Amino acid sequence: MNQTYAVAAVAAVVLATVLVGALGLRISRTTSDFYVASRTVGPRLNAAAISGEYLSAASFLGIAGLILLQGPDMLWYPVGYTAGYLVLLVLVAAPLRRSGAYTLSDFAEARLQSAAARRLAVLFVVGIGWLYLLPQLQGAGLTLEILTGAPDWVGSLVVAVVVTGAVAAGGMRSITFVQAFQYWLKLTALTVPALFLVAAWLGDDAPRARFDAPSAFREHTVVRVDDTVRIEIDAPLTLTVSGTVDGTAYQERRLTLDEGAHTVASGTALAFPEGARAPERAHAEAGPSGWSQSLSAGSDGHRLYATYGLILATFLGTMGLPHVAVRFYTSPDGRAARRTTLVVLALIGAFYLLPPVYGALGRIYAPELALTGDADAAVLVLPDRLLGGLAGELLGALLAGGAFAAFLSTASGLTMSVAGVISQDVLPSRGVHHFRLAAVLAMAAPFALSVVSENVPVADAVGLAFAVSASSFCPLLVLGIWWRGLTPPGAAAGLVVGGGSALTAVLATRAGFAPAGWRHTLMAWPAVWSVPLGFLTMLLVSLATARRVPSGAAAFLTRLHLPEDLADRDLPDGEPRDWGRPAGSGGDRGGDRGGQAGTPDGDRTEGAGA
Amino acid sequence: MTAAQAVVLSAAGALLFVSGLAVGRLVARRGERPDLDLGTPVERATFHTLHTASLAAPPLRAGLTEDTARKAARRLRSLLGTEALCLTDREAVLAWDGAGADHHRTRVMAKVEDILDSGRSQSVHTGCDDVRCPLRWAVIAPLTGEDGVLGALVAYGSRESAVLVRAATEVARWVSVQLELAELDRSRTRLIEAEIRALRAQISPHFIFNSLAAIASFVRTDPERARELLLEFADFTRYSFRRHGEFTDLADELRSIEQYLALAGARFGDRLKVTLQVAPEVLPVALPFLCLQPLVENAVKHGLEDSGRPCRITIAAQDAGAEAVVVIEDDGVGMDPAVLRGILAGERPGAFGVGLCNVDERLRQVYGDEHGLVIETGVGAGMKITIRIPKYQPGVHAGAGRHRP
């Protein structure tokens, strides 16, 4: 692939992001129009911003990669990512906005009137933010590695530096415009190449993707294996090898491998003839990345369980993502928040129609990605594979730009919210400098982890963040909004037991501590047991400590569920009635008022006639 | 390095960090007590008593309610070392700590009512039928506030003891002091509320006369504009004189400022130039009612009334993470910083000072001292006022404020 175009596209996206960040502020400025205050962020703009922030590397690259690797089962990912907003719309959106909370920890404090609950929530906000940032940085590294051959930490560094710089310098001040721009950029970057690719596929007599059997190479292909892998072959395979296979070194030798497992050392080049069946990575391998295959590995029982785990995590986890929650604050009221969510559903639903197309095409045209493990790159290599030439390079560059937009938008949104929480609750005092320091802190930890830890499929890694969020904040939000009896000890216990156990399971699987078999599946997809555990703990402990229900709980719930125009205007015609009534609270003041009563009433009639 | 090792390493690092933090805290806390000189046993007992008392103080500072009484009762009982302790107000038992809540709780009010009028401590026999019940004698001590007896502290013992009577009376007196402080807090809040009312009344006279005069000048030449201005005037006064709520949102406050500037623009014509730079993200931020308008009014006064030249006023609201930053700037005559300092300290009351001082005080009261006004000015150098408003603060939301303690 031509590096120049790709690098130019990535640079253009970074530049455009910074420019919109600066210019968006100009758009929002006005010198002549006095009624700027009525120009709040509308549902459509806010929805595009939420979608832009939400559609991360997992959506842009990861889903196509997983579908390439494991087939249509993986369609649950886009379904789950979208359906999360349905749950959010029905249960959380409007009340969360009406609570006046900016972050999730604010909500915990406002609902429970407890500083301890707030501190606990802060821990989870930061933890989930970091878990979510990690795959974004790794995805960026992978993308730049494929495009330019740079070491994989370079891409992570680019994203980390750009995002931290922009957030710390206040360049994300017009973040709504930036994120809305990123959504449309990502949608374009995925739609245009998809149209060309589908046209090319139709021109190629529309071959069908096969998910039940290994796919075959459509032409003579040379695959270079970067890491030592074990491959699984179900029929004898003849190929040309330069390198080491099963411990023996070959030099441009033609070789026939028997069926069964074989070890291919790193640096080996395998040349497959046309029509050869693509081998797949052996799943029995107990390595650090072995966990990620658990959804397709194992028996049908595991598979069903893992699917339920995925569904629960994504359906219920969306509401607890720190960067999603803060964006609802921008809506002027609860009704607008609900409308915004509805538009988000439409925008995200439209976007998610595209990645499966890339996944299926990748299965046909780039089967070796299943062997090298770089399935996340499917989206990026397809234009070159299908179209080639200048068109392929340009479309590839467009996709690369879109992928970078995905890393930048999600990473900046996450960094903003995590830095906000760190500067508010972790660092000793507030101020501009502290926010900068917090932004650096928010990015430093996941960056360090992304450099030292090995790549895992992006969509899976994001799924882990969803699982923790679904087990901690989902019970807190749902019970906090819909149940008067939630107490601070109950909420704290639920957060610790539900969220904590999910977090432990996720970290243990990532570290490779989890034992094989059923227990491994249980820990890799914790949502199935940790979400009910979180809910149950919160319920039971709250019931046991029923005396500790915060005194303002009933009033707070009323505020959450009453539309603003009823709740805020508790005296809808307050002023005129007040003016007319001679005695208010004090006799002497009332007389004063009575004297003026005529004027405002007159004004009112005049206003009503307009 | 593999992912497994990396994650393990980082997890171990995090664990080490947390345990280090915990050990550090522990050591620091230990360090507060000098190891060598712990004092005589009497001194130590005194320290212990004072410490327990200081722990019970914060809940009581919020006034005498069921919630605060529950929190305080536990501490007070350990202070007195009695079998049971009960706090009441004039009507009912607020909190019971210790044994015997089942059968004594219902009877205690009858005994308390006797002392509510006298205001003197009493030691009475409980007359309990249960022989195993340790609560034989009760000391009832009144809790007094500014307006007489607020409630009572009841300490139970197994026998009649002059020591317990003395101790309970002293503790009740100490609690009474805390309650009086709570009343003081409340009256301070009321004072600030009264100031807001004064501020609302204060905006009007000058401004109303000038606006009406300006509108009158348009009635013949440009009736349509005069009509619009009158409507602006109506909206502006309706907002400023609104009676409910201590808080509003930035959108409403800015709308009122726009109306104010439209009216000021009618009076000053081309001399007043306004730039508004508002990030739409911060419009829903809740903030104290009328906390920007006095500042804008001040900017207009400084920029235009005190000099004859044109003036530019810039109002900017920006999104800064968990805060909104509002900047109000004018290029008018400015002010000597020393004079300004005097005004903010309340030493030079004047028409100008009340508005600025009041806004500063309210911001500090609501958000804490680090969120007061930041003013940059000099003689002839204009004035720039910066406010940082947290997007979320407990108890602050548009429409709140009626029932705030």
Key descriptive features of the protein:
heterodimer; A: 610 residues; alpha+beta; Sodium/glucose cotransporter; four-stranded antiparallel β-sheet; 25 helices; 8 strands; 66% helix; globular; disordered C terminus; B: 405 residues; Beta-Lactamase; Heat Shock Protein 90; 2 domains; five-stranded antiparallel β-sheet; 11 helices; 53% helix
What report would you give on this structure?
- The complex is a heterodimer of chains A (610) and B (405).
- Helix content of chain A is 66%, strand content 7%.
- Chain A is an alpha+beta fold and 610 residues long.
- In chain A, strands 2-7-4-5 form a 4-stranded antiparallel sheet, with no helix packed on it.
- In chain A, strand 4 and strand 5 form a beta hairpin.
- Chain B has 2 domains: 138 residues, 2-Layer Sandwich (Beta-Lactamase); 169 residues, Heat Shock Protein 90, CATH 3.30.565.10.
- Chain B starts with a helix and ends in a 15-residue tail after the last strand.
- The C terminus of chain B is likely disordered.
- The chains are: A alpha+beta (610), B alpha+beta (405).
- The interface between A and B is large, with 74 and 60 residues.
Short description:
The complex is a heterodimer of chains A (610) and B (405). Chain A has helices at residues 3-27, 43-54, 57-70, 76-98, 104-112, 115-148, 152-168, 175-203, 300-317, 322-327, 334-351, 354-365, 369-372, 378-386, 389-426, 432-452, 458-482, 488-511, 518-524, 527-544, 553-561, 564-567, 574-580, 587-596, 598-609; strands spanning 29-30, 221-224, 229-233, 237-245, 248-257, 260-264, 269-272, 280-281. Chain A has 610 residues and is of the alpha+beta class.
What is this structure's SSE topology?
The complex is a heterodimer of chains A (about 600) and B (about 400).
Chain A: H1 3-27, E1 29-30, H2 43-54, H3 57-70, H4 76-98, H5 104-112, H6 115-148, H7 152-168, H8 175-203, E2 221-224, E3 229-233, E4 237-245, E5 248-257, E6 260-264, E7 269-272, E8 280-281, H9 300-317, H10 322-327, H11 334-351, H12 354-365, H13 369-372, H14 378-386, H15 389-426, H16 432-452, H17 458-482, H18 488-511, H19 518-524, H20 527-544, H21 553-561, H22 564-567, H23 574-580, H24 587-596, H25 598-609
Antiparallel strand pairs in A: 2-7, 3-6, 3-8, 4-5, 4-7
Helix pairs in contact in A: 1-8, 1-15, 2-8, 2-11, 3-12, 3-15, 3-17, 4-9, 4-11, 4-17, 5-6, 5-17, 6-7, 6-15, 6-16, 6-17, 6-18, 7-15, 7-16, 8-12, 8-15, 9-17, 9-20, 12-14, 14-15, 15-16, 17-18, 17-20, 18-19, 18-20
Chain B: H1 3-32, H2 41-60, H3 66-80, E1 84-89, E2 93-98, H4 101-104, H5 108-118, E3 122-125, E4 137-145, E5 148-157, H6 162-221, H7 223-240, E6 247-249, H8 250-268, E7 272-278, E8 286-288, H9 293-305, E9 311-320, E10 323-330, H10 337-344, H11 351-367, E11 374-377, E12 383-390
Parallel strand pairs in B: 7-9
Antiparallel strand pairs in B: 1-2, 1-5, 3-4, 4-5, 6-8, 9-10, 10-12, 11-12
Helix pairs in contact in B: 2-3, 6-7, 6-8, 6-11, 7-8, 8-9
